[in-house]
Amino acid sequence: MKAPPLCPNIAANVHAHRAKKEYLEPLGLPAERPADWRAKALDKFRELLHERRSLSLYMDVCVRCGACADKCPFFLGTGDPNNMPVARAELFRKVYRRYFTAAGKLAGRLATAEDLTDDVLDQWFTYFYQCSECRRCAVFCPFGVDTAEITMAAREIMASIGVAPKYTTEVIRKANEIGNNLGIPLAAWKDSAEFLEQELKEQTGKDIKMPVDQEGAEVLLVPPSADMFANADTMMGYAKLFYAVGVNWTTSTYASEAGNFGLFLNYEQLQKINRRIVDAARNLRVKRLIIGECGHAWRAAQAFTDTLNGPLHFLQKPCPEHICEFAARLIRGGWLKLDKSANDGVTVTYHDPCNLARGGGLIDEPREILRAVVNDFREMPADTIREKTFCCGGGGGLLTEELMQTRMNGAKPRVEAFRTTGADLLATPCAICKAQFPEVFKHYGVDARVVGVMDLLAKAIVI
Amino acid sequence: MNLALPVLLYAAVAVFLLGMGWRISWWLRAPAPLKIVLTPAPKTFSGVAVRLAGEIFTFRSLFKGDRYFWIPAWLFHLSLALLLIGHLGGLVMPKVAEATLGLDESQFEHLAQVAGSVAGILAISTVLWLLIRRQVGERPRSISHFSDFFALILLLLILGTGSHMRFMGGLDIMQARQFVAGWLMFHLVPPPSNPVFAAHVILVSVLLIYIPFSKLVHIGGAALFSPTLNQRNNPRERRYAGPWGAAASISKSK
Ligand code: SF4
Ligand code: SF4
Predict the structure, then answer these.
(1) CATH for A340-460 (3.40.50, 3.30.980, 1.10.3470, 2.40.10)
(2) Is B73 on the interface with A (CB under 8 A)?
(3) Backbone phi, then psi, for A109, in 5-degree steps?
(4) Looking at this predicted complex, what is its ipTM?
(5) In CATH, what number is assigned to the domain containing residue B93?
(6) Residues 139-158 of B with CB under 8 A from A
(7) How far apart are CA A25 and CA A146, in angstroms?
(8) H/E element holding A350?
(9) Closest Cα to atom 5, ligand 1: which residue?
(10) What is the whole-number distance in angstroms between the Cα of residue A134 and the centre of ligand 2?
(11) What is the number of domains present in chain B?
């Protein structure tokens, strides 16, 4: 997509709603901004510089070459200069220079250093919540400067002084208190599982189980909770897949959420939410852990679990495994009987969720599955797929009503790429993408639907 | 004998070395608590080495990102590298360089003449290209700071004075070699009396002092130490507890 002309401050008035006391306190965050907030924020800043090499290095080495500038979907969709990754990072770096570098302390403005003022804090809250931590910018940076790392640090500092969005904190509170982001209680999870079992019975005539909290099962599947309630076809797809190969599996009500919004707030919550999955696997005495269709959940689970809450000796490798890896392995091994024609009549393309493609390198498996179960599969243009994929616009904790304008802007490059394919079905293994795209298609007048990879696979499985 | 020039150069080199050591140790002291690999992320050390070599020697990611900008960026760094090597061979150890290349003195002088001219012209034209880009391109202009122009102009002046000596003559190369040899052995010899030479050395000293305190610090291993580029993508195969143990922010909340 061609870069738009610069429109300064065009996105400056889109903000997330701020969390109040009832969402901050349960996460151990100050209920309101303390009087000495600046000192506290700078202490946190210093702490993070000491604890994250990514941050300390990326603060120093960016040469402002601008190679990343036109790579960000939120810049491409708005033209707001502060949405260029380098400029977004500079909002943070100017404060870094002011307090942590000799040049900034001595030369001040001349070294483009700036005090941490209320205005700067407002800028942070605005523009670090117009970044979906998609990491597309990092792919093109000569030093791999990952603006998502900077966004995460800025958010963590803000949270430490009680400045956080309502959406993220509310979701995390639910994940901590109930076990999933939607806040669905245990009983409703079981009801829903039973309901889907009946649905499967009607569709297939078979007794396909959707087990809940079944101790001693071989596999613990942790899906995003949205699969159980919104993406029923994906959820039934998992069940059908396990049924077809006779694997004894279960879901857990304690860890009924693969998603981990801690990634969008701070490491403490990231670790805490992640621990639920490990504890559930241990308590249910399963042998293997499989993660469902969710992008950031996969990054958190795949790259961080062993570090945060390991060792995972009691589970078989690969641990965790992605449902697409599992399914692709079965297809390769000839374990599934597939009827491609079940998916005839639609043209399918694949959207790489950012965190699968860039974080985990899970790029080929979903395509392997789709090629095996769909006759008419097309790719979007090469510079918009695989590790160069464009964010759906709703990742990184932006999937909330008041950020709708940001979300639609961020989705623009993805929609343009989608349009070139002529597809009417967008397959993607991510619950956030699945919630975002229907809004996007409506907004841009695109006549298409979004489905999971499992949905199409399940349709083609012959049992 | 004028001591100002050699002493300034000692000071500048000292500031540069200490400054770079200070920055690099600051980066390395912070742990990389989590695996934050970026696709395509190799699984092995040799894969990482290939990736890093690609980034450092060919600016691979930049090429992916912006081919038209990659040209001046890469040529600029290449010409600076050539000039650096040229100075090493021509000024610091001409005998070694001659022997390595198997050339006699006049052939070597000839080579230095040609290679130095080409690299110098290349460097000047790419610096100008980069300067103009920062002025003309809408996005580059909006992200450019005073310090970005300062760095480029400083380089331009260094290259200008250097090229002046190369093209306009006026520098006694033997005198320059003696000065450098003496300087290296802490046995001071008077510098060539050419004022352009003095200007060149002063500007280089300013640059050396400036590097550790500015974005130019990236020459200290920005890509090499970058966790998104130098980590192996094997968090499931091998437990990654962080080379320095998990960071405090992680262990604290345990
Ligand atoms: S590509 Fe990297 S070095 Fe260049 S401006 Fe962006 S973050 Fe900075
Ligand atoms: S991580 Fe993604 S959303 Fe954030 S600045 Fe980079 S490209 Fe933009």
Answers:
(1) 3.40.50
(2) yes
(3) -55, -35
(4) 0.94
(5) 1.20.950.20
(6) 139-140, 142-148
(7) 30
(8) strand A348-350
(9) A64
(10) 5
(11) 1
Burial class, A33, CB count within 10 angstroms (exposed 0-12 / middle 13-18 / buried 19+): middle
Domain-by-domain residue ranges, chain A? Answer: 8-164, 179-329, 340-460
Domains A8-164 and A340-460 share a fold: no
A107 neighbors A113 (Cβ within 8 angstroms) = yes
Contacts of A86 in chain B (CB under 8 A): 143
In chain B, residues with a C-beta closer than 8 Å to the C-beta of A44 are none
Domain A8-164, CATH number (from 3.30.70, 1.10.1040, 1.10.600, 1.10.1060): 1.10.1060
Encode chain A (463 residues) as per-residue pLDDT tens digits.
899 999 999 999 999 999 999 999 999 999 999 999 999 999 999 999 999 999 999 999 999 999 999 999 999 999 999 999 999 999 999 999 999 999 999 988 888 999 999 999 999 999 999 999 999 999 999 999 999 999 999 999 999 999 999 999 999 999 999 999 999 999 999 999 999 999 999 999 999 999 999 999 999 999 999 999 999 999 999 999 999 999 999 999 999 999 999 999 999 999 999 999 999 999 999 999 999 999 999 999 999 999 999 899 999 999 999 999 999 999 999 999 999 999 999 999 999 999 999 987 899 999 999 999 999 999 999 999 999 999 999 999 999 999 999 999 999 999 999 999 999 999 999 999 999 999 999 999 999 999 999 999 999 999 9
CA of B110 to nearest chain A CA: how many angstroms apart?
36
- Asked if residue A159 has its Cβ within 6 Å of ligand 1, the reply is no
DSSP 8-state code for residue A289: E
CA of A130 to the centre of ligand 2 (A): 8
Q: What is the rounded (10 degree) CA torsion for B130, B132, B135, B141?
A: -20
pTM as predicted? 0.95
Per the CB < 8 A criterion, the answer to whether A97 and A111 are in contact is yes
How far is the centre of ligand 1, averaged over its atoms, from the C-alpha of A88 (Å)? 11
CB-based contact A243:A203 (threshold 8 Å): no
- For residue A90, the chain B residue with the least C-alpha distance is B143
Tell which residue, A461, A40, A69, has the closest CA to residue A241: A461
Among A133, A354, A392, name the best residue to mutate to test ligand 2's pocket (greatest count of ligand atoms within 8 A of Cβ): A133
CA distance A84 to A413: 14
Chain A, 369 to 388: residues with Cβ < 8 Å from chain B are 386-387
Q: Give A165's DSSP letter.
A: B
Ligand 1 centroid from CA A143, angstroms: 7
Residue A89 sits at the chain B interface (C-beta within 8 Å)? no
Domain of B91 in residue numbering reads as: 4-253
